[in-house]
Amino acid sequence: MAKRRLEDAIVASRALNVGIKLIDHFRSAKPLFSHDVNAHGGIFSLRFSDELDQLAVGYGDGSIRSFSVTNGKETNEYLASSLPPIEHLRRLSMDLPIMSLKWHPLASHCLYAACVDGTIRQVDKKTNELSVLTYEIDNELTSLDFSFDGKHFATVGKDAHVRVYDSEKTIIIHKYNNQRNDTQLEQILHRRDSGTDELSCTTGHYYRAFACKFHPDHRNVLLTAGWDNVIKFWDIRQKDAMSEEIAGPHICGEGIDARGNEILTASWTCANSLQLWDFRTMGLIKTLNVPNADTDKGEFMYSAQLCDNKTILAVGSGTCACHVINSETNQELARLPLTKPVYALDSMLGGRVFAYGGLDKFSLAHMKDS
After folding, report:
1. Is residue 98 part of a domain?
2. Range of the domain at 271
3. Quick one: which of 15, 36, 72, 172 has the fewest CB in 10 Å?
4. pLDDT in tens, 103-132
5. Anaphase-promoting complex subunit 4-like WD40 domain spans which residues (predicted)?
6. d(CA 266, CA 247)
């Protein structure tokens, strides 16, 4: 309890520093500012800094830019062209989309980026430099996440493997292989020839994985999801997947979130895209309504987050909007439209301030109590 009060006090102090009012009730939402992004290939990832003063934005051309939360002005720019060439990537362009951005929990000046070219990049705010930490050959990265203690991070992508890294050494400590037959045969032959039993398994995904999420209350529990319509659970201390799983959600973005005993999924489906699940039983709690979703265009959600006051944020390509929904009443508190598909979403202060972006622009908005 004392720790929680201390954390709340720190958050309140940071909010005050950037001029944000900590309201107790969410009744509507309003955009604060927006930026056009057509010249940079759209927006594919967003992340607020721990200090709450900066918003990092990942673009379709491989660039990363940061913006002030208080006035919306651009503060830094990190271009893929500033990176040195990488031997294994010489035939590929490095100006491909930044699909995921996460700040290191133990080093708040370090921003990690997962890129479609297979690189894991780092922005160091202290030195103002962009670098490549490592790369996954023949993979297209789609998501990256840290355990809450910062000791590990995980990645997923096109090859459907789940990789868990030691964040201090940036080395893979677990590789949960996909379930494709060629991978299983390759692993069996390797074990036969080497006589070793590697820290890998073949109970992973069948198809491209799009989301990985460490549970915020369980540092060793990792959730992953993608095209194969299943949410898988991993205890990263173990060699195989956990027996529990959730069948159904078709995930095509960073469309899983967890908070306490609730799991939220955002599926790229015409209907029933937003669903809440019970972490204890893996059972469905409820399917949320997306009001005013056009029956022709559908819902088709890419990303969603759980916020305070039983509120959910969700974005997608069907409505081309950011939705603010009360999960208890199924009431839409706000709908903030853009003109093209919306891929990226992040929030801070329990959802009191949030950002969303897609192919045409990104916007920063805040909740209102009136």
Report:
1. no
2. 1-36+252-369
3. 36
4. 999 999 999 999 999 999 999 999 999 999
5. 136-181
6. 13
In sequence order, the β-bridge partners of residue 171 are: 166
Q: Are 212 and 143 in contact (CB under 8 A)?
A: yes
Number of domains observed in the structure of the chain? 1
The counts of H helices and E strands in the chain are: 2, 29
DSSP letters spanning 134-194: EE-TT--EEEEEE-TTSSEEEEEETT--EEEEETTTTEEEEEE----HHHHHHHHHHHHHH
| Residue linked to tokens 């309003």 | 30
| Domain membership flag for residue 11 | yes
CB 261 within 8 A of CB 278: yes
pLDDT digits (tens, 9 = 90+) for 210-241: 999 999 999 999 999 999 999 999 999 998 88
Euclidean distance between CA atoms 176 and 169, whole angstroms = 19
DSSP 85: P
Amino acid, res. 304: A
Picking from 32, 35, 75, 30, the residue whose alpha carbon sits closest to that of residue 59 is 35
Whether residue 336 is contained in a domain is answered as: yes
Whole-structure pTM value: 0.90
Which tens digits make up the pLDDT trace of 31-50? 999 999 888 999 999 999 98
Give the chain's mean pLDDT: 88
CATH number for the domain including 21? 2.130.10.10
Please calculate the CA angle 100-105-111 and round it to the nearest 5 degrees.
Answer: 40
Residue 362 lies in a domain: yes
SS3 80: helix
Distance of CA 260 to the CA centre of its chain: 18
Closest CA to 266 of 328, 344, 330: 344
